[in-house]
Amino acid sequence: PFLRLLEAQLQDERREHKQEAEALKNKIVAMKEELEKQQEAFLQTLQLPPETQVEFGLQQEITRLTNENLDLKELLEKLEKNEKKLKKQLKIYMKKVQDFEAFQTMVPVEEKQEKRNMQVAVQRKEKDFQGMLEFNNEDEPLLIQNLIT
Prior knowledge:
Residues 3-96 form a coiled coil. This is MYO5B protein. By secondary structure, the chain is mainly alpha-helical. It is built from 3 helices and no strands. It has helices at residues 2-45, 50-125, 140-148.
């Protein structure tokens, strides 16, 4: 169950990454279109008088830099938010792994108790149930022993 949960979460992360990559590809296409528009505007400004060309060029550059700056700020905020989210998830996963490792070290002690409890439970419930029985492969020798006794 723990590994399935991690697999599902990994698949979610992959799906999110794929969506982000697609968004970036779309952004590249939009930037190419913007570049084409700028090239057309530049060709038009070449036909204007020299003083007007300089003024128009400066206005275009200021506009472009402002837009680029805003886009970069937005991207930075998005990346910072994603970084915080990933750090939070990493802490959660590290805690789960530590808990799982701690559980694994405790299992041998609990198995002995479960064997005793299982014997009692099998003896009590043996008369109540008929049909299929679900068990772990590692419990097979214990189950056979209980059936024999």
